Amino acid sequence: MGSRTEQSTRVRPTGQRMPSSSRRTPARRTSRAARYLPILVLVAGYLVVHLLWPIPVWVAGLYLVASIVCFAVYAADKSAATKGRWRVSEKTLLLLGVVGGWPGAIVAQQTLRHKTQKASFRSAFWATVFLNLLAFAVFATPVFDLLAEWTQRTLSL
Fold it and tell me: Is this entry keyworded Membrane (predicted)?
């Protein structure tokens, strides 16, 4: 082995990856269980809202089907990425998440290790999760009726 200065100035050839032992690890790591916390929050929120204001069962079915479809699309995109084929656009992945497939997207991201590194995609993804949960809260609770009533009163003035 060379001196410390020789080791620190060593350059890897273009196109070669660093050995896994020398790769940097992110300073902030999230536990595996915490990555699934938003799904638990959705299920708990759904149950609480359903107890207070009954929700049709098709809503849960919509989340389940959208999640399965979203997982399958993430898996197809991961396969395309590893084989150098045409990829699924990020807009499509985000659209699937916002319509209720985001729980499946979270499972796919964690089990397939796909779409977890690009910060701009992660930010957009969590924004779609927030939008979906906001829409769920508005439409599944009396908030929508209150907004509709307020709008009707305001416009009839």
Answer: yes
Q: How far apart are CA 9 and CA 55, in angstroms?
A: 63
Q: Is residue 40 part of a domain?
A: yes
Residue range 5-38, pLDDT digits in tens: 444 455 555 555 555 544 544 545 667 777 888 8
Residue 5, amino acid = T
Q: Is residue 12 part of a domain?
A: no
Q: Where are the alpha helices (DSSP H) in 9-84?
A: 32-35, 37-52, 57-83
Domain that holds residue 72: 33-155
The answer to the question of residue 13 being in a domain is no
Q: How far is CA 61 from CA 108, 132, 134, 136, 154, in A?
A: 19, 15, 18, 14, 36
Q: What span, in angstroms and rounded, lies between the C-alpha atoms of 107 and 73?
A: 12
89-to-9, 74, 93 alpha-carbon distances in Å: 39, 10, 7
pLDDT in tens, 118-137: 888 899 999 999 999 999 98
How many structural domains are present in the chain? 1
